[in-house]
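ARCHIVE CARD
CATEGORY: sequence design from structure
SOURCE FIELD: tokenized fold
FIELD CONTENT:
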């Protein structure tokens, strides 16, 4: 789910990129040397959306965020894994506004009991083969609810999974609760396709490059579906031509760099 289109631009211009949580490895030192790490996360796999296969064939590693309980959930997870991409669960969570029908099956809503939230999170993880973490689909309401996020993150800890906060709401408390629970957590920095035009997508990738000139890492989110084929095309054209000191990795690589010793952090499939 995306923030209003202007927020990523405003955040960049004001220098308000969110710093990764618990990150002694992260740096905003202007004298930063060596490789800079960037991760592109693509949301909304699982429903035969436009651009799906195009994303899997990109010439660099992405992170495929796959919604559970949908027609191509398992197929997309297998394809992504076989192509060498990271796989995470794109967990549907309640927004501040909008009908619940937008969320899809198995959504986490604030009216659920802790027990039901836990059951749904476990089921979602089990539904997505090769999942090594989770991020939120929509969720502007749920991610600001401490009780709900504590229940979600406790399951992540039990399963040895990380959480990537998509940051659809500046009031999100995911990172704070994750630190309390003991779950590795990073945050999205910007959305690449909150406007479905080549000009905007290209501009957002320029923002990513600018951010990486004196910060590392940078996480950016795009989508399959509306604009998905164009997003894949723009990524395929621009990223291979970016500076050679920028390496595009999966989010698992960022977590490995920034949380080198996290007891119990696993693929999540052995629990």
């Amino acid at each position: 789910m995306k923030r209003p289109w202007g927020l990523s631009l405003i955040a960049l211009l004001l220098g308000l990129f969110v710093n990764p949580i618990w990150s002694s490895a992260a740096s905003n030192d202007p004298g930063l040397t060596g490789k800079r790490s960037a991760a592109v996360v693509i949301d909304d796999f699982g429903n035969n959306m436009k651009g799906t296969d195009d994303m899997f064939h990109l010439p660099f590693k992405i992170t495929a965020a796959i919604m559970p309980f949908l027609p191509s959930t398992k197929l997309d997870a297998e394809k992504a894994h076989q192509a060498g991409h990271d796989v995470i669960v794109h967990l549907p969570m309640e927004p501040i506004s909008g009908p619940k029908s937008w969320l899809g099956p198995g959504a986490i809503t604030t009216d659920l009991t802790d027990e039901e939230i836990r059951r749904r999170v476990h089921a979602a993880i089990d539904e997505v083969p090769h999942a090594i973490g989770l991020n939120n689909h929509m969720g502007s309401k749920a991610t600001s609810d401490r009780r709900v996020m504590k229940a979600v993150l406790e399951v992540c800890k039990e399963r040895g999974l990380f959480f990537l906060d998509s940051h659809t709401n500046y009031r999100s408390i995911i990172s704070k609760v994750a630190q309390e629970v003991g779950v590795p957590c990073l945050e999205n920095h910007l959305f690449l396709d909150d406007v479905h035009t080549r000009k905007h997508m290209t501009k957002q990738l320029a923002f990513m490059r600018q951010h990486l000139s004196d910060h590392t890492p940078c996480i950016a989110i795009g989508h399959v579906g509306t604009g998905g084929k164009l997003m894949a095309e723009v990524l395929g054209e621009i990223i291979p031509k970016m500076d050679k000191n920028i390496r595009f990795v999966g989010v698992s690589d960022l977590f490995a760099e920034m949380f080198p010793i996290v007891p119990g952090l696993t693929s999540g499939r052995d629990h």
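CARD ANNOTATION: The CA atoms of residues 36 and 97 lie 37 Å apart. Confidence is low (pLDDT under 50) at residues 1-33, 267-271.
SHELF: design records, drawer C
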